[in-house]
Design goal:
The protein is mainly α and 110 residues long. The protein has a single domain, classed as Orthogonal Bundle (Helix Hairpins). It has 4 helices and no strands. 7% of the residues are buried. Bound molecules: magnesium ion. The site of magnesium ion has 4 residues, from helix 2 and helix 3.
Length: 110
């Protein structure tokens, strides 16, 4: 059975880093962190631009939107791995916190 995308993404990221470092880029761990953080922002911007175009009435292929969302998620996986964070655990914990806040707000809402 072929590994899923999350299992394959470290190898893809390692190959990307190897190429970048051969060109003299991303030579430190901090460089990689900065790159990944900016890449997430860049991909989010690309998604926002497509949503904007859809909003104003342009005909945008849904695949392009799906691709940008995938780019964001893949970079999130990379940055989490780089920082030693389990993204699934982080999301579980964060959703619990958000749910608790919502519960409190709902109790205070007439
Ligand atoms: Mg993209």
């Amino acid at each position: 059975m072929q590994p899923n995308w999350q299992q394959r993404s470290p190898e893809i990221h390692a190959r990307f880093l190897k190429i970048a470092r051969a060109k003299g880029h991303l030579t430190s761990e901090l460089d990689v962190l900065h790159f990944l953080a900016l890449a997430i922002c860049g991909e989010a911007g690309e998604l926002a631009n497509l949503v904007k175009k859809t909003w104003r009435g342009d005909d945008i292929d849904e695949k392009r939107i799906r691709d940008e969302i995938a780019d964001i998620r893949i970079y999130l996986e990379h940055i989490c791995r780089h920082l030693g964070i389990d993204l699934d655990d982080a999301c579980e914990q964060k959703l619990e916190e958000v749910a608790a806040r919502l519960n409190a707000k709902e109790q205070n809402t007439p």
